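Inputs:
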Amino acid sequence: QQQVKQSPQSLIVQKGGISIINCAYENTAFDYFPWYQQFPGKGPALLIAIRPDVSEKKEGRFTISFNKSAKQFSLHIMDSQPGDSATYFCAASTSRTGRRALTFGSGTRLQVQP
Amino acid sequence: DAGITQSPRYKITETGRQVTLMCHQTWSHSYMFWYRQDLGHGLRLIYYSAAADITDKGEVPDGYVVSRSKTENFPLTLESATRSQTSVYFCASSDLGGGRETQYFGPGTRLLVL
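Outputs:
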């Protein structure tokens, strides 16, 4: 059972454009929603994260939009740059159990063309 | 500042052999995790540990064994490797608590089982 569904699988954007990646979750116990960025041959690294008490969080060119009622959240990359070309994973976790592990989406490969 | 390291970085083995992947972190984080990354599946949790001598199964634990005798080390053992265990394995650690949720990932181990 895939608890976090991510789309699209791949995305090609022109330099300066907006990249949008969407995720939907099923488990209403999730209370932490991070996005991770992964470059080839590297481990994932935290990009930005949000909690369900806010609807939007912005850090530089990266924005998370969160819709609790729809159980959806998305990553927007403004003014996309070739250096943003990477694989992006949404994830979710809950603090209600001792597990605290992340449930990941399947990933989106972003290519920003110069 | 070594952070979190994994060894070996690459490993080729044969079916039926035992393989141990090492993970070491220098932050004294309480939580450690093992994920596997496969195309189309994102990262899936194999095992996690909340503290030394406390481990528990994740989403895909079959065929794997973990131990955590010291806070800084979290080895993952494939008792009898199978071709389906060909994957990229990531170790992560986190100092969960007080609102801190970030998981820090190692560089990964690419395992090929022939």
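Remarks. The domain at 4-113 of chain B is CATH 2.60.40.10 (Immunoglobulin-like). Chain B has a mean pLDDT of 93.
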